[in-house]
Design a protein that fits this description.
By secondary structure, this protein is mainly α. The protein is built from 8 helices and no strands. It is globular, with a radius of gyration of 21 Å.
């Protein structure tokens, strides 16, 4: 009976680390899962290739995407408001897509081994995934700025009610 309880507790610990189905099936969840997967595969390919000097980029992007996947799935970003999460995520995606694109071109054109070519191809896949993510984040940020920096739950009239102007 003790083995069953230990297996059950290990399963619950594992389930607490994995993202929930609700988040994993959302658009942001699927994009983060694709970023994690493409970065990890690209990391493995670069580690096995003669272009091993480029292994740092996929490793850092894998860890950053994994952290954000964890933060968004556990709603850590809502509890820790010290950062501007959408802006941080936007900058991460922009830099990742640009650097992945450059590194992938170098890996495909300069190196002749198969692992370098595979790393370049998965780097191009990662470029597209990160570019799609920053495009969607940019649209969200643009909508937020069009609303005057107010969320959809907070009406714009509320600011006028509490204004301190002496226009009487």
């Amino acid at each position: 009976m003790g083995d069953v309880e230990a297996a059950g507790s290990r399963g619950s610990v594992l389930m607490s680390v994995l993202p929930g189905r609700e988040f994993a099936s959302s658009r942001k969840g699927m994009l983060l899962l694709a970023e994690v997967a493409s970065s990890f595969i690209s990391f493995i390919c670069f580690a096995a290739s003669t272009a091993a000097a480029f292994v740092t980029l996929p490793l850092l992007e894998f860890l950053a995407a994994l952290f954000l996947l964890f933060a968004y799935s556990t709603k850590f970003n809502e509890r820790f408001t010290g950062f501007l999460w959408p802006l941080m995520d936007f900058l991460r995606c922009v830099t990742a897509s640009i650097i992945y694109f450059i590194v992938s071109i170098i890996a495909v054109s300069k190196y002749v081994d198969g692992a370098s070519k595979a790393a370049g191809v998965f780097g191009f896949v990662a470029t597209v995934v990160f570019a799609l993510d920053f495009y969607l984040i940019f649209n969200q940020l643009a909508d937020f700025l069009k609303q005057g920096g107010q969320t959809s739950e907070e009406p714009a009239r509320q600011q006028d009610e509490f204004s301190d102007s002496d226009s009487d």
